[in-house]
Design goal:
The complex is a heterodimer of chains A (296) and B (433). With 296 residues, chain A is mostly helical. Chain A contains 15 helices and 1 strand. The longest helix of chain A is centred in the middle third of the chain and has 25 residues. The relative contact order of chain A is 0.13. Chain B contains 10 helices and 20 strands. Chain B has a 6-stranded mixed beta sheet, sandwiched between helices. In chain B, strands 11, 14, 16, 17, 19 and 20 form a 6-stranded mixed beta sheet that branches. In chain B, strands 10, 12, 13, 15 and 18 form a 5-stranded antiparallel beta sheet that branches. In chain B, a hairpin with a 4-residue loop joins strand 16 and strand 17. The longest helix of chain B is centred in the middle third of the chain and has 16 residues. The radius of gyration of chain B is 27 Å and the shape is globular. Classes of the chains: A mainly alpha (296), B alpha+beta (433). Chains A and B meet through helix 1, strand 1, helix 3, helix 7 and helix 15 of A and strand 1, helix 1, strand 2, helix 3 and strand 4 of B.
Chain lengths: 296, 433
């Protein structure tokens, strides 16, 4: 069975071609994976250009044949904000921590849209990239990561509207705005941590895709988008942070609308929750990665 | 430091029957979990069936070698390439690859129809593992190879399939890793483009790269590869020089597996028309020795056997078939009544043999088209049946059949001679003197 087939005898020509001696030829070992899982960040870094092109492709294709193009990125959060302002702000008189309700809702909708978009895109991302996965090697993590990052452009476009609204309402950002990039990173990580789970699960259980609309809706009500986290009783608020999107949204409000909303322990619980979700997601993803090409 | 590019030891890949593992629904997972405590009851019968697509495969490929992997469908060739290019993990065994690997299991992987030619070159190049700077440097070369300069900024969904394939191959052809793994990608495009691709592959091979090459095109294997490995049902059955291996493979293939007899009994899969008073029942190709075959060697005799079933006595029947090229061009027709075969059919089954000697279609894939009809009605007309392959004759010493200039479909025997021009020849002699 283990007969070694040696082709060397037939290969006089190769030697005469004057191949340069290999000093730094990378050696790759292929064998069945064992229990030990390694997160190959170096490989991921090597494929950063692929990541860039996949994100670029998704964005380019998404708006290529739409009549409104990038206006869609604005339309969705603005329309949602209007509906929220009328029903929750005006009619239900939901408190908004002393900020005009429209901007209160819109600041929360920005990270929320990013998250909801990432959820629906990444959950189906591996299955949609079936043709790549079965034909080419690359770190599979590139796929869900690229679909999460694809939402950033929409976020940026919608953010411009926020700046206009802040100008209109005369809200000047405080020093806390310096932390905004960190909160954005936090939002992306939250989306990615959930996206990793969903994308890998969807390869095996196609049910996942069907739960996404329900999951997104449910999750939105559990997140302080239309209402402030301060509605939740003080003693439960830290626990509320177990929904990491609560931390993200409160963080955004704090960074953009003023120091009076400092999220406190809720934020730290959220960060911890994301770290756990992310590590678990990465582990599950890496564990199932080797079978993607056979199952998908 | 070694001169080995790829070393493989005892590599195996197992799939669940059906070749792919099914994705499961949550419901399946729940029922399985619920049934788990009772599994011992059915133990032994509920074990899923597995198939080893590759088993105990070992080889050493020296740096700079161009190795052809040949074998029938399902022999494990593609599985081997998938494992070597890291798309799927081996179930057992070990492989060691020295150098950057580029794999080409398909042309145009990741091409997006909405994007322009230019955009797709970058996207596809990156997917194949090239860096952006590398693509930019080779961009003009790629475009001129593909001959699509004018359509660079047109979305590829508007391309003809030929243009699409040319562009896709052009990107792939400019990949230059130390080790190149290539699946059957030369079988695309028209003959002229295939020739160009083959030429490009020859350049790659000549540049001293290690290439692992799977193809059904035995000509290409013989031309490109110095060594070959013959696979059958997941294991190595032969290794050696490409010429030896091809010869061996053709010998086994022409007797061995493959569909040798076309079943033409009524079924929805067969494209046919006619009133059915007479019908083709089956068709097969027979070698000179009378064995059913699916591969015909160029220059050798072959017999086409057609079986016809008639439901009522018919007179004045015309019966015939033609050889058709894969692109649908009818190459030659032949009819039984030309040979003076009785054109009255009794009720029941009758068998007709048509001996073709020698087979002078050039190496390639063909199929038959046949009809039974009379001057007034069509009994049966089948558009396409009994696909077969003509291969270069393995029996001539140096492969000097017309296979080496396989332009076109048909070989008409010819001989060249110089008729005039003596004066010029004389002139040359004078000049030399």
């Amino acid at each position: 069975m283990g007969q070694v087939v040696n082709l060397q005898a037939d290969c006089q020509s190769a030697k005469t071609l004057g191949m340069t001696p290999a000093e730094s030829i990378p050696v790759l070992i292929l064998r069945p994976s064992t229990g030990f899982l390694r997160l190959d960040l170096k490989a991921l870094w090597e494929y950063r250009e692929l990541l860039y092109f996949l994100v670029w492709r998704d964005i380019k294709v998404r708006y290529k044949q739409t009549a409104l193009g990038a206006a869609w990125a604005v339309l969705q959060p603005v329309a949602t904000m209007l509906v929220f302002s009328i029903f929750f702000g005006r009619l239900a008189k939901v408190p908004s921590d002393g900020v005009p309700y429209p901007i209160f809702a819109y600041v929360a909708l920005l990270p929320w849209q990013l998250f909801a978009f990432a959820l629906s895109e990444s959950s189906n991302s591996l299955v949609a990239s079936q043709n790549l996965i079965t034909k080419v090697y690359f770190p599979r993590l590139v796929i869900p990561i690229s679909s999460v990052l694809g939402g950033l452009v929409d976020f940026a476009v919608a953010f411009v509207i926020l700046l206009a609204m802040m100008l209109y309402y005369g809200i000047a950002p405080t020093a806390a705005v310096a932390l905004l990039p960190l909160f954005l990173l936090f939002a992306v990580m939250t989306a990615l941590s959930v996206g990793l789970w969903l994308s890998a699960l969807n390869v095996k259980y196609r049910d996942v895709r069907y739960t996404i609309p329900f999951l997104t809706q449910f999750w939105m009500f559990a997140t302080p988008v239309a209402y402030p986290a301060s509605l939740v009783p003080e003693k439960w608020r830290a626990l509320y942070g177990l929904n990491p999107m609560a931390g993200v949204v409160e963080g955004f409000r704090w960074a953009l609308l003023g120091e009076s909303h400092a999220p406190g322990p809720l934020l730290w619980v959220s960060v911890a929750a994301v770290v756990v979700l992310l590590i678990g997601g990465l582990r599950y993803f890496k564990k199932t990665e080797s079978t993607f090409a056979d199952i998908v | 430091m070694t001169d080995i590019a790829i070393r493989v030891e005892n590599l195996g890949k197992r799939y669940r029957i059906g070749r792919r593992e099914h994705y499961r629904t949550l419901r399946d997972a729940i029922t399985e979990t619920a049934a788990a405590p009772f599994r011992w009851l059915t133990h032994g019968t509920s074990e899923p069936d597995y198939i080893w697509a590759l088993k105990g495969f070992s080889c050493e490929i020296p740096r700079g070698e161009v190795v052809g992997i040949i074998g029938c469908n399902g022999a494990g060739k593609s599985t081997l390439l998938k494992v070597l290019s890291r798309i799927t993990e081996p179930t057992e065994g070990y492989a060691e690859i020295h150098g950057r690997v580029g794999s080409l299991l398909e042309v145009g992987t990741g091409f997006h129809p909405e994007l322009t030619g230019r955009e797709n070159v970058y996207l596809n190049g990156t997917i194949l593992g090239m860096h952006r700077a590398e693509i930019a440097a080779k961009f003009d070369e790629i475009v001129s190879f593909a001959e699509i300069e004018r359509f660079l900024d047109t979305p590829v969904k508007h391309y003809s399939s030929g243009m699409y394939m040319r562009l896709a191959f052009a990107v792939a052809a400019h990949l230059d890793p130390e080790i190149l793994i290539v699946d059957e990608v030369l079988a695309v495009g028209d003959a002229q483009f295939q020739k160009k691709c083959l030429g490009k592959m020859e350049d790659v091979a000549a540049a001293g790269r290690t290439v692992v090459f799977v193809s059904h095109n035995m000509n290409a294997v013989q031309r490109l590869c110095s060594a070959a490995i013959v696979l059958d049902r997941g294991t190595v059955v032969a290794t050696g020089t490409a010429v030896e291996c091809v010869r061996r493979h053709l010998r086994t293939e022409s007797q061995g597996s493959g569909i040798r007899k076309a079943d033409l009994s009524p079924s929805p899969g067969v494209k046919r028309h006619g009133n059915g008073a007479a019908r083709f029942e089956s068709a097969e190709l027979l070698s000179a020795a009378g064995d059913p075959i699916s591969v015909v060697h160029f220059g050798q005799p072959v017999t086409v056997r057609l079986t016809v079933r008639t439901t009522r006595p018919l007179s004045g029947v015309l019966l015939g078939f033609s050889f058709v090229a894969n692109d649908g061009t009818e190459l030659q027709g032949s009819a039984a009544h030309d040979g003076g075969i009785s054109t009255d059919l009794r009720t029941g089954i009758q068998v007709f043999d048509c001996r073709v000697d020698p087979m002078l279609l050039t190496p390639g894939r063909y199929f038959l088209r046949g009809a039974v009809f009379s001057r007034t009605e069509v009994y049966d007309h089948v558009d396409e049946f009994l696909p077969f392959e003509v291969t270069p004759s393995p029996y001539t010493r140096d492969g000097r059949t017309p296979a080496n200039h396989y332009v076109g479909y048909v070989y008409c025997p010819y001989r060249w001679s110089a008729v005039s021009g003596e004066e010029e020849a004389d002139l040359h002699q004078v000049a030399r003197a």
